Amino acid sequence: MTPLPPRLALSGLVRRFPGVTALAGVSLSAAAGEVVALLGENGAGKSTLVEVIGGGLRPDGGTLELDGEPYRPLDPLDAQRARVSVVHQHFQLVEAFTVGENLRLAMKEGSLAKWEEMQLRLGLPLPPLEARVAALGVGERQRLEIGKALLSQPRLLLLDEPTAVLTPAEADALFNAVRRLAAEGTTVLFITHRLDEVRRVADGVVVLRRGQVVDRLPATAEARRLAEAMTGELPRSAERKKGALGDVVARLFSVALPPQLEPLDLELRMGEIVVLAGVDGNGQAAAAERLAGLSDGPGEIEVDGVRLSSPTPSQLRRLGVWVIPGDRTREGLAPSLSVAENLILGRHRHGAWRRGPLLEPAAVRVEGERLVAEFGVVGDAVQAVSQLSGGNQQKVIVARAVSARPRVLVAIHPTRGLDVTAAATVRAQLAVAAAAGAGVLVVTADLEEAVETADRILVLSRGRVVGEGGRGTSLGRLARWVGGEAA
Amino acid sequence: MRRWLLAMAVIAGAGLVVVLAVGADPWQALGAALASAFGSPVAVQETLARTTPLLWCGLAVALAFRAGVWNIGAEGQLLAGATAATAAVLAVPAGPWSGPLGLLAGGLAGAAWAGIAAALRLWRGVNEVLSTILLNLIAVAGVSWAVHGPLQEAARTYPQSDAIPRAAWLWRPFPPGRLNLGFLLALAATGLLVLALRRTGWGLEIRAGGDSPETARVCGIRVERVQAGALVLSGLLAGLGGAVELTGMTHRLFERFSPGWGYSGIAVALLGGLEPVATAVAAALFGALAAASGGLQRVAGVPTVATLLIQGLVIIVLAARRQR
Description:
In chain A, helix 14 (390-403) runs parallel beside helix 15 (420-435). Chain A is an alpha/beta fold. Chain A has helices spanning 46-53, 76-81, 99-106, 114-122, 138-150, 168-183, 195-201, 223-231, 284-292, 313-318, 328-332, 339-344, 361-374, 390-403, 420-435, 447-453, 475-482; strands at 8-17, 20-30, 35-39, 61-66, 69-70, 84-87, 156-160, 187-191, 204-209, 212-218, 248-257, 262-269, 273-277, 300-303, 306-308, 321-324, 354-355, 358-359, 408-412, 439-443, 456-461, 464-469. In chain A, the strands form five sheets. Chain A has a six-stranded mixed sheet, sandwiched between helices. In chain A, strands 16-19-20-13-21-22 form a six-stranded mixed sheet, with helices on both faces. Chain A has two domains: 8-231, Rossmann fold; 248-482, P-loop containing nucleotide triphosphate hydrolases (Rossmann fold, 3-Layer(aba) Sandwich), CATH 3.40.50. Chain B has a single domain (2-321), classed as ABC transporter involved in vitamin B12 uptake, BtuC. Chain B contains 13 helices and no strands. At the A-B interface, helix 10, helix 11 and strand 18 of A face helix 7, helix 8 and helix 9 of B.
């Protein structure tokens, strides 16, 4: 008897973009029922690889095989017909529709009766069919996307950073589901940056660097070794000196937060980093967006003694409130503008690049090149920002906000989906802003990040503060608060 | 580049079909078309004169679209400009100020006409596609009313205005060719628009707002106002186009003053990729087509409306192409 062909076999896969070779000959295989983690720094080619397998991009060279048969998807729908499903890092949901309506859009036939049953089978809490997507938090949307992908009973499931927005408990539930799927014979290929996840859920690890497979390791490999394979060097964690805190620079007064609309009061001092933690959709992002002027509602905002009830973003930017938005592709960047233009956006009327009514392109470029170098953006100041990889795009957004010398800096999921090095850069920049006297408000679902970054950690559950900690608070205690236990 | 080849292919293909359909000899028709667009200095001037209103409208559309405002109303704004220019020039005793006065009145009227849609969008959230299209209909009816009523010629014979005094006519450098100052002004406007979009903070706001309004808003740009401003300015350009056509070419207002320049302007701007300079080249291409249509009718018996048909096809093909 001949051995079964692998579920997925890639050979010499090449994909080029203008100026970049994202995949430079990727070969790998995965057996039926195997869970493979795809590790790599931002820009290593992980997302491109998933897109190519999922039919979103055509390869420029190389071959793909599924269960020994040639596989060359024309588009995502074609891939779905071959029972290959992708859960993208960026959600593909219609906000105005309910969960059920979104599912109907995605599946051409069949019934939704499976939805409840799937939830039981996989132990994954899925949002109810009648819930409107606009009202769901990021974590819930992610589970909806995963559930959507599973409805077609894929033989190959691709997950692009599925846990980036999940709390530890949510991530655990997802991993259990992944293991059960694997036991049923589904092959799972998932992108991650978290080394601990690799060991918990994967059978094997494929490490990508600059578009090539540099290593294939068992999941039991040492974390150090994995990190080394990824970056070619060992990462250092950023250490921050605790500075003296200044006066209160911003306040929230009785700001009502969804889902329960409990009024929240919050003070932010100069030089202080306050982290809002908790399961997504419990009011953290809502509070931060309120302070940034991105949403409106009851309550008031005070910045530097100026009290406002419904401030607009432009009012707040003038008061020195800057934001690193959570939805970076939609709210963070103007994709067809250059990197340099994106970097000066919002400061374009003030800087050294003004010559009367004109902008001096050379000076804009110099500023762009300065920030590109300072923030370690891999790219060129004059290229369109859409040509950068996700991590480098986020560095541009962070650079813009930090270099504006904010009084208040609001950062919503600032390191979501970034590799260890890029995430460390971003965290270090938040610390730089605080050291320069800014009050920094960070929203994150990553408790380790919270402990590493914060002067003060507020855990929100259903719009209420259920626990307040600091750098010394143990992860276990934070996790219990996040789980809904009151302090 | 492929966009241009496609447009040229559509023009050649559709032109050939039309020529064959009316039973003309294709080579003779081609010769006639080229001769009346480029065959002599006067013909070249005619091409540029026909380019002028297309360029003004193309610039207007390009500016609005770049800002993310879908101004379909260049037609109405052009008519508002032409009407206001006529009224202003006829209302004031003739003198060296007549020409500038006509242009000023036309530009302001175009801006005001677009301003209605801008205000509705800014304060009432009315979709500008809808409002500008409806304002086009009103403008067409308004011109008709004006040339049957308050602006009708003194003789009260035809639905048209009196000719404006010679003092108000735009300078024609090489008579008898019809090339006039309006074309040079349009070139100047092209240069200014390039400068404004590329080299000013306002231009950056326009481009950022058109590219990603959410991002622009997050960065503290008052996107809605910037977009409303772009729409008003777009109307100014289209209104100037109307005033220029009136004072430089027709010298009087009449019903069906515009053969649809405002709509052709959309095709011109799209063919030009919303870049001012490329828009000027696209306008010249359509201008040559318009100039050629005269020769085609005289020599080959191809009706001039065929050029409108070809322009329409170009729009549809370009629109179909831009979806991916």
